[in-house]
Amino acid sequence: MAFAGRWETETQEGYDAFCKLLGIPDDVIEKGRDYKLITEVTQDGNTFSWTQIYPTNAKVTNNFTVGKECDMETIGGKKFKATVQMEGGKLCVTFPNYHHTSEICGGKLVETSKAGSVVLKRTSKKL
């Protein structure tokens, strides 16, 4: 149940390069650069509801059970099928253009998205 709670971005590294690689427009990158993304997670065993609230109050919720294929959605609205795995305490999933992991380190939510050599690392504090 370590993931459950409401989290707010404290720091992020590699944001601009990662967003550009995904083809996000410059004006959207600018708006989101200093935005304190809110992540809300509920967890019941291996079943999760994971919501991220973005600038302009856009939000995406993905519901999944570890080890089972599910329908997911990107912030851009692209729907895809994926299976979230738990590997060494990390939630891992492959999105259409990148691989994403989430873990709890020192009481913080650390999310890492990797596309080739470009890495976005976001660290959030619990609210």
Describe the structure.
One of its GO terms (cellular component) is cytoplasm. This is Fatty acid-binding protein, liver-type. It is a single chain. The chain is mainly β and 127 residues long. It contains two helices and eleven strands; from the N terminus they run E-H-H-E-E-E-E-E-E-E-E-E-E. It has one domain (5-126): Lipocalin (Beta Barrel), CATH 2.40.128.20. It is 11% helix and 57% strand. The longest helix is centred in the first third of the chain and has 7 residues, at 15-21. The relative contact order is 0.23.
Computed CA radius of gyration, to the nearest angstrom: 14 Å
Q: What is the structural class? A: mainly beta
Strand numbers in spatial order across the main sheet: 4-3-2-1-11-10-9-8-7
> Which blocks of ≥5 consecutive residues have pLDDT under 50?
none
Shape: globular
Helix/strand order, N-terminal first: EHHEEEEEEEEEE
If you average the pLDDT, what whole number results?
Answer: 91
Q: Tell me the count of domains.
A: 1
Distance from N terminus to C terminus (CA atoms, Å) equals 16 Å
Helical region count?
A: 2
| Topology, number of strands | 11
Q: Assembly type of the shown chains?
A: single chain
CATH architecture: Beta Barrel
Protein name: Fatty acid-binding protein, liver-type
Main location: cytoplasm
Subcellular location: Cytoplasm
Family: Belongs to the calycin superfamily. Fatty-acid binding protein (FABP) family.
